[in-house]
């Protein structure tokens, strides 16, 4: 990053003394490190000064301009310059932390597969003596989106048999948290109970079926936990990566394949990879697939039944005569039902239109897009421009 002069302006107004218009001028050295594989791609910003800064300020005491006293201005100016230089003159630096570097630098070590099997003897929450339960799953204290099962209407003993996967970076400390909610069409969804599973309790590559007692809180001394709230049955298996799989993953992360032979000289190959979606919610059913529309052509992913967080990882290619700098890709997530005679056999779960100019300039874009006409739905699309 190129050096440039910068100006720091501060106004302070204590009760008796006034430091006015403190300005520090200097040439900074800015370092972004350590570099990591997730946005914004660095964990901290380090700012140093390349020379002793120039300082300008005003100082008043009880309304009297002290800087008018002969020799005082230069003395105080040199004192401040020395203090600032001692703190920030290179190799000293001011660190601005963007994210926890220890967490950011952790490599994925494996995959946790979770099957939410069923719940039994849940509490009645509705006036008619029923509840509409669903389950939220997430890795506790991790800044990643939670996953959700479908809603089971009017059922105190629901069966889901829905599968979810999480990328694991530290199985010794990470904890899976599960919360059961009662879905409500109006207002906040009421929590019915929760429990957690420390991943350190799992044996690698060994499936484990657990029956979790639903609690009010995670405080073991909370008397509210004595009230029955039902049970949640789940199946877990932690699958560590083999060493060669982790090395392959690192080696391939920076690669960009070239377009195949026969691609027009002025054009290239547009590659679209539909990875996954999260928090999809259909009004009548949630059996999602993705429909791509580009230059009048339509491509579709496979349909995944009864899943709000589907994963496809399907690739589509378009060979183009010229870069698509002025084109857009239309992405729509649909849910379809195979039930005969169903009035609403097809419904849209959300859509988004993606401008392709960024992928032409950056060669690769991998982002999660918020779906329009969806409450919380997002879809992850990776775009590549190969020439």
UniProtKB/TrEMBL annotation:
InterPro entries: C2_dom, C2_domain_sf, SMP_LBD, Synaptotagmin_plant. Transmembrane segments: none annotated. The keyword DNA repair does not apply. Its cofactor is Ca(2+). It comes from the Eukaryota. Its main location: membrane. Residues 1-99 form the SMP-LTD domain. Belongs to the synaptotagmin family. This is C2 domain-containing protein. The lineage of its organism: Eukaryota, Viridiplantae, Streptophyta, Embryophyta, Tracheophyta.
């Amino acid at each position: 990053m190129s050096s440039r002069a910068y100006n720091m302006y501060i106004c302070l107004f204590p009760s008796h003394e006034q430091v006015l218009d403190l300005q520090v001028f200097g040439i900074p050295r800015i370092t972004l490190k350590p570099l990591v594989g997730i946005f914004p791609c660095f964990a901290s910003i380090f700012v140093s000064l390349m020379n002793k800064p120039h300082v300008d300020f005003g100082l008043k005491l009880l309304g009297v301009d002290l800087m008018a006293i002969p020799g005082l201005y230069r003395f105080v100016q040199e004192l401040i310059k020395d203090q600032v230089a001692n703190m920030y003159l290179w190799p000293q630096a001011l660190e601005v932390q963007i994210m926890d570097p220890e967490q950011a630098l952790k490599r994925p070590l494996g995959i946790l597969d979770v099957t939410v099997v069923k719940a039994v003897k849940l509490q009645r929450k509705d006036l008619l003596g029923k509840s509409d339960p669903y389950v939220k799953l997430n890795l506790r204290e991790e800044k990643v989106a939670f996953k959700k099962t479908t809603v089971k209407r009017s059922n105190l003993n629901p069966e889901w048999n829905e599968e979810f996967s999480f990328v694991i970076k530290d199985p010794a400390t990470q904890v899976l948290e599960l919360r059961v909610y009662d879905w409500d069409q109006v207002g906040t969804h009421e929590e019915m109970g929760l429990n957690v599973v420390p991943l350190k309790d799992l044996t690698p590559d060994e499936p484990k079926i657990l029956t979790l007692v639903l609690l009010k809180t995670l405080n073991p001394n909370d008397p509210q936990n004595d009230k029955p709230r039902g049970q949640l049955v789940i199946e877990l298996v932690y699958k560590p990566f083999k060493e060669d799989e982790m090395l392959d993953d690192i080696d391939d992360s920076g690669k960009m394949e070239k377009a195949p032979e026969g691609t027009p000289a002025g054009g290239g190959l547009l590659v679209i990879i539909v990875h996954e979606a999260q928090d999809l919610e259909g009004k009548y059913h949630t059996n999602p697939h993705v429909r791509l529309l580009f230059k009048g052509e339509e491509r579709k992913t496979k349909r995944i039944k009864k899943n709000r967080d589907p994963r496809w990882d399907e690739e589509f290619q378009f060979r183009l005569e010229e870069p698509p700098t002025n084109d857009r890709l239309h992405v729509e997530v649909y849910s379809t039902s195979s039930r005969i005679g169903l009035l609403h056999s097809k419904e849209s779960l959300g859509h988004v239109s993606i401008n392709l100019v960024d992928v032409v300039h950056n060669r690769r874009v991998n982002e999660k897009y918020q779906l329009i006409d969806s409450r919380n739905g997002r879809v992850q699309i990776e775009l590549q421009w190969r020439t």
